[in-house]
Amino acid sequence: KQYGKGSIMKLGEKTDTKIETISSGSLALDAALGVGGYPRGRVIEIYGPESSG
């Protein structure tokens, strides 16, 4: 609540907020991020099981 709505987003979650992005170079990853790339000025953490790629 301290940082406001949209400060934490889940992978693939769609948002109405206009966010400036940087393309990852992967169309699948850009789509999964939900905003079309890495959001500029934000910390991104993507994780999964060991050996998941």
Main β sheet profile: 2 strands, antiparallel
Strand portion: 5-15%
* C-alpha end-to-end distance: 33 Å
Give the count of structural domains. 1
Helical residues, percent:
10-25%
Q: How many distinct beta strands?
A: 2
How much is the average pLDDT? 80
Structural class: little secondary structure
Describe the strand arrangement of the main beta sheet, using strand numbers: 1-2
Q: What's the helix count?
A: 1
Radius of gyration from the CA trace? 12 Å
Broad shape: globular
What is the N-to-C succession of helices and strands?
EHE
Low-confidence stretches: none
What are its keywords?
53 residues, little secondary structure, two-stranded antiparallel sheet, globular
Task: Give a short overview.
The chain is low in regular secondary structure. It contains one helix and two strands, in the order E-H-E. It has one domain (1-44).
Please describe what this structure looks like:
It is a single chain. The chain is built from one helix and two strands; from the N terminus they run βαβ. The chain is low in regular secondary structure and 53 residues long. The chain has one domain. It is globular, with a radius of gyration of 12 Å.
Per-chain topology:
Blueprint: E1 21-22, H1 27-32, E2 38-39
Antiparallel strand pairs: 1-2
